[in-house]
Amino acid sequence: MQARFGRFLLGGFVVLFFAFLILPIAIVVVGSFTQASFITFPIPGWSLRWFQRILDYPPYLASIRVSLAVAVGATILSCLIGVPAALALARSSSALAGATMVYLLSPLSMPMIVIGFSALFFLSRIGVGVSFTALLIAHTVVCLPYVLRTVAATYRGTGRSLEEAAALLGANPLQVFWHVVLPLIRPGIAAGSLFSFLVSFDNLPISYFFGSPETLTLPVVMLSYMEHQFDPSIAALSTLQLALAVIGLVVVDRLYGIERMTVAA
Fold it and tell me: Member of which family (predicted)?
């Protein structure tokens, strides 16, 4: 009897927990399709007018282009830096390798505002200033740990036997990497790239420090827009961002499998 009551309480807690997580998101998604001029629930009628508002408001379109460019650029740079670093550090047992790994992963544990302020001060000091290049560098610093961590975890999980066998059969280091190592760590690269893109695309604290008419990202424009008006176009943008994340997860799941990505992370 007590065991059954315990399972009942646990089931109720799980339902309430998931409702707490999902209901606010569901209300925002439904609210993005309202025909009213303000956010209300339940909505008085269905309409796509707020998605049309996104297309009609030039700052939204410009900021989406900037956010996509920064997210793609930061992800590519993170992979170019993070993959070689992960291969060099993952299997090393030296204290220097451990300290380097901790240093490269440290942005995960630091407040974004501190990173943004420090990056702004340093990049301005060396002459980069507030520019797209500075924004890209700052986002790469934040995205790098995601690629490094997933690739290192995947690489540690693979044995050395396949690489040694390829080398014994005459493959040079480049051929070993291209034909043996790269296919093995590809799920880790995919997982890290996905996390990196989403973290950069949704980042507000760091982007806020580098805001200029040419470098305003979508989160910064949404925040500025809400300071003066709060119509359902914000909900429509949130719905599009949510759809982008879901589509990315589905695509990567079809290519590599969410379970393998989770194990790698």
Answer: Belongs to the binding-protein-dependent transport system permease family.
